[in-house]
Amino acid sequence: MDGAIACTADEAQNEADWKVGVDIGGTFIDFCALEARSGRVASLKVLTTPEDPGAELMTGLALLAEREGFDPARMTRFVHGTTVGINTIIQRKGAPLALFTNAGFEDVIELARLRMPDMYSLFCSRPDPLISRDMVFGIPARMRADGSESRAPDMAAVERAVAAAKANGAQGIIVSFLHSWRNAAQEAKVKATITRFAPDVFVFSSAEVWPVIREYERSSTAILNGYVHPRVSGYLTALEERLKEHGVPARPMLTKSNGGLMNAAEGKRACVNMLLSGTASGVIGASWLARQAGEHKVLTLDIGGTSADFALIIGGEAQFGTGELIGEFPLHIPSVSVSSIGVGGGSIASVDAQGVLRVGPESAGSTPGPACYGRGGERPTVTDAMVVCGWLGHSQMAYGQLSIDTGLAHRAVGELAARLVRPIEQTAQAILDITVSEMFVEVEKLASRAGVDLRDFTLMPFGGGGPMLGAFLARELGMKRVMAPRRPGVVSALGGLVADLRGDFIRTIFSPLSGASLAGIREAFEALAREGRDWLAAQGHDAAAELSLTCDMRYVGQSYEIEVVLLPEWLADGNVAAIEQAFHLTHERLYDFHDPEGEIELVNVRLSAIGAGPKLSFPEIDEVDAPAIPARRLPVYTGVSVETVDLHDRQALVPGSALHGPAVVVQEDTTFAIPAGAQARVDRHLNLLLTFAE
């Protein structure tokens, strides 16, 4: 691989310090391995094995050892992102659960927030809850909003409910009572009774998962955690055993939805924290690459086999939020803000009953995959359309594991073209145009919500499919710059390597902002700080910790709050005016409005405990004036006609190399399609920078 520093076999054996990041997607598992002492980077893609999640991990480690001299016994850091949790929810293959809540509130998860997913659709419906109504049991109990007990839980009713839940096949029970954010004693008491009465059933209480105000959000987060618990816990246990069998000394770490890391032991318990681990680590990897390249405003585009994910990087940092969708359900814990759409390289193109061409959301996945993979797929996909147009299929894919069969791609797209009574190239182009237009709509929504002008941003495409379609999307969005990293296909795996330990903690305060309320905020902050430091210690982090404090605040009368950054010295000094000013400024920035005379209400205090990860860097190479020499020329259908364009090998491009579109750049993990009117050059970080003429 490029960037390697030569060393003897003995030196490698004695001095090697391998740090490995792994990310499992819908089609491929990606590896990014860094030998820290020499700076050598090795990367790899392996097809996933849905029937045996985790088996492909061992296959990949064996291939790294064979091809790159990787020694598992010299691995000091192993970070892993997985889609086991989110796929369990999307496919609805989680554990049968029961919900114990207050009598009279059994409809809490069905009522939710009384909102429809699409208010403008006459055919819209809400998803069925993960727990059916007959598995929800009301327990006579009541905690007041001030934390005092109005009625103690009826333990005889708890025992009857446990017996009924087990008889109906429940493997786990979620306990979620009113106002447990204020006082969790009733939930804890009921959980202890369930554990004593039915030790074979796992139990989670809402307050231990995420102790936040609003019963639906707290309940649904706990339900998601319990729903995936058996599969995630079983997967992680098998992972630890496999790594131990292969002599890996590093304790496995897991990427989290918040872009940080946690150990596998916590992952088995706090499963909900890793539901968006793959998409989050991709944004963290992209943020690191953006900072290295000096890019301050970036729109990321991560295209895999089944979906396209978008995120904004501002000031070199990922953006965070709550309420991200996990399948059809909102996730109410902090996570990297990512927008997704069901369009990827494996998305299947079809004609509906009205004769309209559609793309996705159904995907061919890794098995059987796109037709051109030659693995049994027969239906046309976005990847097949790229092959038919000539952008793809000129080299092996996925580090030599896949050879493109252009004949199979033409057959699959040809059958669709016959139904549409259109030439095959035009049909393939229509598939690509629809794909780009669907992504365009989703990106415009993201930009509108964030209030940004994408013309000021650089697009960073990654994933196996990002570079294939990224430049076309950027051109439609009016963006002037595209930055393709050296190894776009393994950016999510890189994100695991550069990520920090990060734990998020919350306390609900719910009081007016005043000098009198500062004592409660200080007390909550001190408790959260202790909890955060203890959490970092449990993760094996013994260095300095960074504590980041925010507060959810709103004007009295508003239904929802905004997150405001606080400085600890404001609390120490009792500086209410500074906190008020911070809220007003944040409200003005988000809504172009603030009320200096408005009464302010505190809702939640939040703390992020961060333990810095290893400081990694890739070598920079001086640019030279070296024209890019194409390997050969080939015919490509560019949307209007077939043109003869240059084909470049990414490995042969050096910093300073320049080329112009239309052109194709091939490499081990992806193919970069450069449209007409674009100029490209390689920078000193080996990124391929593309600019469009005004």
Automatic annotation (TrEMBL):
Every Hydantoinase A/oxoprolinase domain range: 218-502
Domain of life of the organism encoding this protein: Bacteria
Transmembrane residue ranges: none
GO terms assigned for molecular function: 5-oxoprolinase (ATP-hydrolyzing) activity
Record-linked InterPro entries: ACX-like_C, Hydant_A_N, Hydantoinase_A, Oxoprolinase-like
Entries under Pfam families matching the protein: Hydant_A_C, Hydant_A_N, Hydantoinase_A
Name recorded for this polypeptide: Hydantoinase
